[in-house]
Specification:
The protein has about 375 residues and is an alpha+beta fold. Helix content is about 35%, strand content about 25%. It has helices at about 10-30, 45-50, 50-70, 75-85, 85-90, 130-140, 160-170, 240-250, 255-285, 305-310, 315-320; strands at about 110-115, 145-155, 175-180, 185-195, 195-200, 215-220, 225-230, 290-295, 315, 340-345, 345-355, 365-370. It starts with 11 loop residues before the first helix and ends with a strand. GO terms for molecular function: catalytic activity.
Length: about 375
């Protein structure tokens, strides 16, 4: 028995659906190119990569539609989906979920990265400081090493903040490199460690990437040296008006068209700057003589050039042991994964978890590792 109805002609509605299916399929194919093409030269491909979380389920819906219609056109979206199968595991955790151990062996290494939004609560225009609550989240995860992104310290009481975090976290060694300084406070990346720091530094910016924010520490772990990078790639820097527009998504008017133009321009600028930054960071990583891991806020999705450029030759902790969509940024209308943990091949990933606590605009992520 032939499942497909060969005698049935396409209705006008079918033809409209087919046209939309063709466009959605081609857009999905375009998104598959985003990890390979530097958006500095062709920024539209970066936009296609951002659309992947919508384009993938859209094509799956077309499969269901054409199956219901018993039409051979079902092969069209099926082919597009099959071509992109290698990318599914980068965006959705499909392997066996391995929860964090409550009592991990001493030889395991638990690492964590958390963008704390300057220790400000998300539900305020001018956020209420919540460092104790955020430190509590970190403490309950019991990391050996944590990268705190957008760490903010008041200069007048800087030492007290460090001592407080050291007491609450039990991580006695730290390195903080301010990225932004003013008269009152400093903001940047702080790396806290249970292990002694034998060397620390940062990736020097270049004229093409003056805002590069990447720091590292070399740690003495069981007599061996391991390097840990903490990075914060270029933010899109949406203002209040853009966040409000994306959250409400009202019908377009003149103001809405203006906001779309501003959003597009900010995205294009961020794509280009991140591409410069990842080249600097990748060059620094290639010169590293030790096993290393890199974690932080990449400000880009799994279908992006910057994430895949950093991840070349490395192990993605989420792809190895993650579950579901791995969402780490939950603001606006489109929650996405933009925080990552990558390791060199000397490490085995044992577990991965997104800590679903909404204090910052980011969720912290934690992974257990073991040296091979």
């Amino acid at each position: 028995m032939n499942f497909f109805n060969n005698q049935k002609k396409l209705t006008v509605f079918d033809r409209v659906v087919l046209a939309v299916n063709v466009l959605a399929g081609l857009a999905l194919m375009f998104s598959y190119l985003a990890p390979f093409i530097n958006p500095r030269y062709f920024w539209l491909v970066g936009m296609a990569g951002l659309g992947y979380p919508f384009l993938l389920p859209a094509n799956a819906i077309f499969v269901i539609f054409w199956l219901f219609r018993r039409s051979r056109w079902v092969l069209f979206p099926v082919v597009f989906l099959v071509i992109g199968l290698p990318w599914v595991s980068q965006n959705y955790g499909l392997k066996n979920f391995c929860p964090l151990s409550s009592n991990p062996p001493k030889e395991n290494l638990r690492v964590m990265t958390y963008n704390v939004h300057g220790f400000r609560a998300l539900d305020k225009v001018i956020g209420t400081p919540v460092p104790d609550e955020m430190a509590g989240i970190i403490h309950s995860s019991r990391p050996d090493i944590v990268a705190i992104i957008e760490f903010n310290s008041i200069k007048a009481d800087q030492g007290a903040i460090y001592r407080s975090l050291q007491r609450s976290l039990g991580l006695n060694h730290y390195y903080f490199k301010p990225h932004e300084n003013d008269e009152w406070d400093s903001t940047g990346i702080a790396l806290f460690s249970r292990f002694p720091i034998i060397r620390s530094g940062f990736v020097a910016p270049s004229p093409q990437a003056p805002e590069t924010e990447a720091v590292f520490v070399d740690l003495s772990i069981s007599g061996k040296v391991t390097r840990v990078y903490g990075i914060h790639l270029q933010s899109v820097r949406f203002g209040f008006a853009q966040h409000k527009f994306l959250k409400q998504l009202r019908p377009l008017n003149r103001g809405g068209v203006k906001e779309i133009g501003i959003i597009t321009d900010k995205l294009r600028t961020a794509f280009s700057r991140r591409s410069h930054q990842v080249e600097l960071i990748k060059a620094h990583m290639r010169r590293c003589p030790y096993p290393y891991l890199v974690m932080g806020d990449f400000n880009d999705t799994p279908m992006s050039y910057s994430v895949n450029r950093i991840g070349e030759g490395l192990t993605n902790a989420f792809a190895e042991k993650g579950s579901g969509a791995g969402i780490t940024y939950h603001r606006d209308f489109m929650p996405v994964q933009i925080d990552y943990i990558f390791t060199s091949k000397q490490f085995e990933v044992l577990s991965y978890m997104v800590v679903g606590k909404k204090l910052s605009d980011h969720f912290p992520i934690v992974s257990d590792l073991r040296m091979r």
